[in-house]
Structure of DUF3243 domain-containing protein:
Amino acid sequence: MSVLENWEQWKNFLGDRLDQAQQQGMSQDIIDQMAHQVGDYLAKQVDPKNEQERVLSDLWSVASDEEQQAIARVMVKLVENNGTH
């Protein structure tokens, strides 16, 4: 099963990656930029695998660049304490 198929696994995966980035000293601005890039890639290249991803994809598709950056920042906040470490 792909990590994208289960919302909780996806959040855990993102949370773990966020923990790693923070432990390596990556700034919040860089993390936010990377989150936006990942969101953009997923919206363009990956078919949503569950209802939550479908909602995010639909929101992303109608959002301006500034709104997409806000969505990315909110996703970072969502998973900030969600890692499995």
Observations:
- The CA atoms of residues 24 and 66 lie 27 Å apart.
